[in-house]
Write a structure and sequence with these properties.
- There is one protein chain.
- By secondary structure, the protein is mainly beta.
- It folds into two domains: about 20-180, D-amino Acid Aminotransferase, Chain A, domain 1 (2-Layer Sandwich), CATH 3.30.470.30; about 185-260, OB fold (Dihydrolipoamide Acetyltransferase, E2P) (Beta Barrel).
- Helix content is about 10%, strand content about 30%.
- It is built from four helices and 18 strands.
- It has helices spanning about 85-90, 115-120, 140-155, 225-230; strands at about 20, 30-35, 40-45, 50, 55, 70-75, 105-110, 130-135, 135-140, 160-165, 175-180, 185-195, 205-210, 215-220, 235-240, 245, 250, 255-260.
Length: about 270
Amino acid sequence: MLLCLVSLSLWAEKPKLLLLKVYKDQNITGWVMSEKFDGIRAYWDGKNLISRGGKIIHAPKWFIKNYPPFEIDGELWTKRGDFENISSVVRDKIPGKEWEEIKHYIFEVPNAQGGLLERLKKLKPYTGKTIRILKQIPIKDSTHFKLWLKEIEEQGGEGLVVRDPKDPYINKRTSKALKVKTFHDAECEVTGYTQGKGKYTGLLGDIRCQLENGIKFKIGTGFSDELRKNPPIIGSEVTFKYQNFTKYGKPRFPVFLRVRADMNGSK
């Protein structure tokens, strides 16, 4: 059967992953940069695709047919601004034909030797229909880096990831791998709603949110028409972007991005 499952189990051992710190004007000349995709983080342990939280991702058998016998880490992705669709496809226990749109963009081969580019070379024989090696662009100087960040964001991209290519793999948060965005992002808990007005009468206006530190605020932009009809449930966590914090600790210019899920690709 074309769409048979990799495994009927729901959970695997939670992978210990490389995680990103935030870029704060460090000197990154000589590093490499790649686009930060808004997809689903997927770790291949040699047998199964596993989410960041440890859930088995039930990919079609054809999708993983030519996967390597060693571990790889990357992002399941289709195109910019398609997170909700990717999440829906990947979370299904019975995979559908929509998987044909998805590619696995690999940014790490954890147990390979050498620097980042050497580690990624080990994967080249396995690239093809589903596996792609995420392009790593050498950073010439700060102007080169900032121009590419601007270009990516103007095209609807989330931002960049910059890494020291000489650094060995490390399975924790590291200052040798940084996320770079004009806006920051964070998570908050949905605590309530405000009804919309005008063209949004009868629909969602704002969501009321609370940060982990107890600060409360509202998010009123970034929602699709579908989300305004069916807003995130109270108690769920959502990801939003913001410019900075006010003196009262509230996010400035918060914009809704997505409902946070266990299989979320955010790093």
